[in-house]
Structure formats: structure tokens, C-alpha cells
Amino acid sequence: MLCAKSAEENSLPQSIRVAIAAPYPSIRQSIKNIFYTHGRRSECVEFDSFHALEAEIQNGYEYDLIVIDTGIDGFSLSYAPLESITRGTNTVFLAASIGRESVLKAKEIGAISMLPLTVARSDIAAILINAVKGKSNWKYAFTALRSYDGRHPGFDTLTDKQGQVVELVSKGLLNKQIAVQLSITEHTVKVHVTNVLRKTKLASRTHLAIAWLSDSNKPASVRI
């Protein structure tokens, strides 16, 4: 965990403009909440595709920070240099899955930080606030590589039933639907989801679904 920061370190300029490009509304809202909490006059603009963000920048709109979920439609880490698209704006990448190649590529094309979605919200907040000020932080990206090299912690420890539940969560099924399909109670489904979130250290069903879908090394034994 990050050490406690002083009020000055956690403060933002009086007025900032942040672009948030992410495929899921819950992730965009979570990032917006960080800036609305720390900046009295923060303006956060949401994008659900990278091409929409790119078009707005090309039209002359300026930002103090750009936050990009690498899973967003239209984005590729093959863009180089990033400055040609973001016009030099400090850019932070969020990623459901971190691999050695993606981290090195992110640094190469000019991002100032890359964060796994498994990082605690308070830590993401501290890093994004510092990113507005141009401070880079690769600690969590490289920690993720050392700890699971692109895999989400806890997936190896799932029971067969937990894996089946997560597979159905990733397909967008509700607890009641999962219960019917697996012939278990809705309460049991809720217990499985809670235990999986604890094991994987993921914050929500949305993050769990993203992580599961992006992990090509998920347990092969999962069968529905």
C-alpha cells in the first residue's frame, strides 16, 4: 500500500480537465469519482472508444491528463509514439491483464504509468493525482509482473464450481440465472462470487469479468 500522502501531495490544481477512455461505465465512473473528490473544479470527459477520444484531440480539445483502459475498442499498444495522438498530454494506462511485453511497450510509446485494475482504489487515486502533475509511477506494473506475470492472483486457487460461476459472470448472467444453470441456490452463487473477489483481490463483478475474459491462462478445467 502507498504511504499516507500530505494534503499538498494529494491536492490538484483548482481546475483540471481529464479524458477517461474505458469500455465499462463502472470503471469510468470510478475514475471520475477520484477527481471529483480531490478537485473542486475537475471536468471529466468520458469516451467508450479510443477513436472518439482521438477525434476530439484532433479537433483541438486539450486535457491535463488522459486515462486509457487498454481494453477499450480501437486501442492498440502498437501506437507509437503516443505523443502523436495525445499531443504530449500525460497519459496513464489501466489494464485488466499485465504482461511483460505490454508494460515495456507502454513505457516505450510514452505513457507515464500503467496500472493493473487489481490495484486498490486509494492507490489508483494517489497515482492519478500525481500523474496530473507529471509524476510517473511504474511500481504496480512491475510488481504485478513479479507476482503473477500477467495472471490475476487467485485464479489458480479457484474450485471447479467457483470457476464455473466466474465463467458465467463473465458472460453477463445474473446470480439467479447462474443458480438455475448450475443447479445451486442464488445464495450459494453470491457466496462463491464473494469468495472469488476475495481470492483475486478484484473490486467488483465487472473487474472480475474483465480479468477472466482477458486471462488466456484461466483454468482449463472450467466446463459448464
How would you sum up this structure, described in words?
This protein is an alpha/beta fold and 224 residues long. Helices cover 48% and strands 12% of the residues. The chain contains eleven helices and five strands; from the N terminus they run H-E-H-E-H-E-H-E-H-E-H-H-H-H-H-H. It has helices at 7-10, 25-38, 50-58, 83-86, 100-109, 121-132, 139-148, 160-170, 175-182, 186-200, 205-214; strands at 15-21, 41-47, 65-69, 91-95, 113-116. It has a five-stranded parallel beta sheet, sandwiched between helices. Strand 4 (91-95), helix 5 (100-109) and strand 5 form a beta-alpha-beta unit. The longest helix has 15 residues, at 186-200. The protein is elongated and about 55 Å long.
Characteristics of this structure?
12% strand, alpha/beta, five-stranded parallel beta sheet, 224 residues, 5 strands
The total of beta strands comes to: 5
Radius of gyration: 18 Å
The overall pLDDT, averaged over residues, is 82
Order of helices and strands: HEHEHEHEHEHHHHHH
Spatial strand arrangement across the major sheet: 2-1-3-4-5
Q: How would you describe the shape? A: elongated
Largest sheet: 5 strands, parallel
Count of separate DSSP helical elements: 11
**Uncertain residue ranges:** 1-9
The percent of residues in helical segments reads 40-55%
Distance between the termini: 37 Å
Protein structure class = alpha/beta
Strand content: 5-15%
